[in-house]
From TrEMBL:
It is an enzyme of class 2 (transferase). This is S-acyltransferase. Keywords: Acyltransferase, Membrane, Transferase, Transmembrane, Transmembrane helix. Residues 108-244 form the Palmitoyltransferase DHHC domain. Its EC number is 2.3.1.225. The chain crosses the membrane at residues 12-37, 49-72, 153-177, 212-232. The DHHC domain is required for palmitoyltransferase activity. It is found in: Endomembrane system. Its main location: membrane. It is a multi-pass membrane protein. Belongs to the DHHC palmitoyltransferase family. The keyword ATP-binding does not apply.
Length: 301
């Protein structure tokens, strides 16, 4: 029995995940802005505290805009698929395909499921049911594959989500400490503490510690994920290719840390932190299209 056919169900799950992301953003917005710092801004007469509230609200909205921009760009950008008429001189060998002549961009392959030639670094996604250019992984959070054309947007989504959730944790920490300090004073056992947490005061008061805990969990998990992907970017490797590399041999697509970074984020520094590319980068950096990739032999003949 082919278990991969059940992977298509992840697409349905993905749409619920989008709703979960929107719900999480809404809860954080309510806890941080509506119930905490906006009242301080409009009601407090202390200039320093009002200035701090203004700064926090501004940074929160800036990160939120960048987060949502990066997220929906990653969701709606096609990671790249093999062009319909992508063909070169090839020799069929059983269910595989070998290049009749080697190319500078690497050996071509053949996908028996799609029954089509595939360029280097291209892999078949069992969820999307197609080959994806420079596939990294299928991400349930964006209901899409992460590939050549949306990898940067995915990484920016991780970065801005990390910064936003870290900000949430920091600004909600006083409310978190106050909530549990009062709950501990009123309880004499762990079970009573748990019941007090569920029955403590107004709903908005309960929201602070819950949101702070959720954000803290997100911060820690996102930090690990970001470190992992930074390591992959620094060696010009995808999550799939980690298992293809030989341990003692330098990866043929490893061009050096700066060039590896530019293969994902482009050369225009002004666009590095934005979920878009300059026209020059799209035209001059072939890897951003996902069909051809420079190797070490191209820069170190």
């Amino acid at each position: 029995m082919n278990l991969f056919r059940f992977c298509s169900g992840l697409k349905v799950l993905g749409y619920f995940v989008i709703l979960l992301v929107i719900t999480f953003v809404a809860v954080s917005y309510y806890a941080v802005v509506v119930n905490t710092w906006w009242p301080i801004l409009i009601e407090n007469n202390h200039k320093a505290l009002s200035a701090l509230a203004c700064l926090i609200i501004f940074v929160f909205h800036f990160l939120l805009i960048m987060l949502l921009w990066s997220y929906f760009t990653a969701v709606f950008t096609d990671p790249g698929s093999v062009p319909e008429h992508f063909r070169r001189e090839l020799v069929v060998v059983g269910d595989s395909l070998e290049a009749g002549t080697s190319t500078e961009q690497g050996a071509l392959g053949y996908c028996p499921k799609c029954r089509n030639v595939k360029p280097p670094r291209c892999h078949h996604c069992s969820v999307c049911q197609r080959c994806v250019l420079k596939m990294d992984h299928h991400c349930v959070w964006i209901v899409n594959c992460v590939g050549a054309r949306n990898y940067k947007f995915f990484l920016l989504f991780l970065l801005y989500t990390f910064l936003e959730t870290l900000l949430d944790v920091v600004v909600l920490l006083p409310s978190f400490i106050e909530f549990f300090s009062q709950a501990i004073k009123r309880s004499s056992s762990p079970s009573q503490l748990a019941s007090l947490v569920l029955a403590f005061g107004e709903c908005s008061k309960i929201l602070y510690p819950i949101d702070a805990v959720l954000n803290l969990a997100f911060v820690l998990s996102l930090l690990c994920f970001i470190v992992m992907h930074l390591s992959l970017v620094s060696t010009n490797t995808t999550s799939v290719e980690v298992h293809e590399k030989s341990g003692d041999v330098r990866w043929k697509y490893d061009l050096g840390k700066r060039k590896n970074f530019e293969q994902v984020f482009g050369k225009k520094k002004a666009f590095w932190l934005l979920p878009l590319y300059s026209k020059d980068d799209l035209h001059n950096i072939t890897s951003l299209q996902g069909l051809e990739f420079p190797t070490r032999s191209d820069i170190d003949p």
